[in-house]
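Re-running DUF4906 domain-containing protein to confirm reproducibility after the cluster update. Everything else is unchanged from the original entry.
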Amino acid sequence: MEGCTEELHPETNGTNSPVLNEGELTKAVLDLSVNTFAVEAQAETRASIPSNIPENETSEEKEVHNIWVFQYDAVTKELLIKPRYYTITDQIMLQDLPVYLKAGIPSFVYVVTNTGYDNWVNDDTDTSWQKFKNLEQLKKQTLPTAFPLRSIDKVSIPMVGASEEVEVTTGITVTVPVTRMYAKLKVKVEMLKAEMKLNNVNVRQIPNICRIETFAGDGNGEPMNAVPFPDGTTFSSIAFAASDLEKSEDKEWAVFYVPENLQGEIENQGGNKSDAAPTNALVVDVTAEIGGEKYLYATYPGGNSLNNFNIQRNQVYRMTLTITGEKGQNNPSSNCFVVKPNGFLSFEPYYRVETGGGYNFADYLSPHDENLKIASVGIIWQTKDCIGDNTNGTLVQLGENTGDIHQKIYVRTQKKGNALIGAYNSKGDVLWSWHIWVTDHEPDNLGRAVTYYTYDWDNNGIYPEKPRIQGYAVMSCNLGALAENQKGIGTGLHRYPDEMTQAFGMLYQWGRKDPFPPLRNVVSEHHDYNDEHTDLHYDNSNQIEVHKTSGTDENKLFHSVIGSTLTGAVRHAIANPTVFITGTNDVNRNESYVQQKSNYFNNGDWCPIGESDNKLWGGLEPASEGMKAYTINQTNNVHIYDNYGTEKSIFDPCPTGWRVASGELWFEFTNTGLNPGSMSGINYDDKFSDGYGMNMYMQKWKDGPTSYFPTQGTRVGDGGGFRTNSCGNYHNATTDTDNRVNILHIHKDAGLFHIFEYQFYFYYVKSVAGPIRCVRDSK
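Result of re-run:
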């Protein structure tokens, strides 16, 4: 056990005047006990377990890992001692925990457990603990973080409790029963037909705030009206993949722990509960696969299945959801689809809902305009047997013309790999194209994602010492990768399925929606982007190879064009999804050429002067007024802006429900939120097995969930390949001024590991093609 028990002298402020006169403290013993979960009486509930059956609690749900101890005068309700933090290393200590308290005064001892922050109440400043100076202030405080939990992860549920009135004497045992501040939500999904498959269970509209005293107020019981959250409250989500159920103690149930969300009861005139749900009510989404399509079903837990939307602390809510096979909510289309080998995909190409950047999808693809209307579909390129021989148009097929946005495209897949399919107008022009990502490791499954917790920041700095800010759930691999991890090191060509490069994802020029296949030749030097350095790729017939070059040879499907020669670069990129648009004045030169800023036009953008657009991936224009901004390096004019935007755009390359990440994701990869001074300042698992990549911690310093980031190389601004053995150059959706991209540049070298790249010009320009790590499009 650790604690602040050595600081027993009165604390003084900067003028040496007493702040809190503790006097001499006495050693006492705390006896903590955890109150049982209450099972909500749910009238007409869908629960498969009757509500009067007690909950079978797990040992993890009762564990206490750290506590804050407060002692208040029973009469004045003022603090008697400076609040102290204790770390619990063994659960047996909870019945005999030595603490230091004020003796001889009738008092109450309050305990708050499992905050995880030893500086929440008392950070050794004069003002920190004064927010807790009286008991009413304590009750109105919120936890430093309120992140949701899953039963299959490390469970540390916040709890609060108070003793009866007690007058402390030496050695006295003070009993404090504690109650969980989170609710327990159990979800079971039953499928009526064998061909139905569960994809994931996702809980959303989880508030990021948890108050010491329930928002319902002390002793007021269950609220019948919605209890408003404080201004600034945001909401998050957490998910179970179907495969995660195998890790669960009870393999039928997905179990979550969430802060309370009190939305009261509504008048329901016999309709569906979902139809009248309050805006902030907690939602359970179930994604199921039926006949090759993914459908989303939403339902609302609460005190009953009719009109109650309260999720109360220390209550258990059990839901059994039956999927009948009736069509749920259609998933809108996107630029990428994840499909399993020997799978079937059906999507509506005209049905798009993205609004980020202000673009209108109907300006590019529309069933009501003959020039923008799909006349045919086919395979532009594919890895061998990914889809197969589509000569007869049976594997990629345009569905019946419905005359509206609900016409469909059907795709049947064969083997793991990647493909790009295209839609053509009656003239044979490419109108739009879609990345078909064929893999069996479910990268788009919410339950496989890891939520990142990044550092707080503002206009004055980045603050690793403060409680972290919950970010978005991060996809488990790079976009287009065929595995999450890789093994081995070496040189030369290592095409898939070689384990050395299996985690390499597609490469994307900033702002473009279509992928370039990754480099597979493990070398450091600049080289041509050609078939000798990549996987082999095939046309619509699956028989004829399509070829590649960094040069301008138009006889090869993959070639380059100099961006400054274009007018309407964005439309050119859409119509020519395999053509690399250089940001340099020439193509396929060499390393020394791409390192020179003078060899680029328009600050390295692939769009010519006058056509640059910082909103292509849904971000906002960086602005000195009206948004949060912090200057990282004044000399090089480097900033981070709060310009992520609230919506993905139609050019975002990620699958439905996912989008390109923001720049603040990378903060927590170092101990300062800035570029590291040494390898010890990088938040990675240095015990991870060999491979060209780094296993990064996503939530805590050197602890907790990790995610693997390959150092898979990049295509630089002249179209050439580069550093497939050492460099990870990750794009995100946000930009700095002067067309600078907020890329993550990772190396197993502290001098080259840059979460803010400004040393190497050729890495942070928009024309560079790098990998992408998608995040959920909402928290």
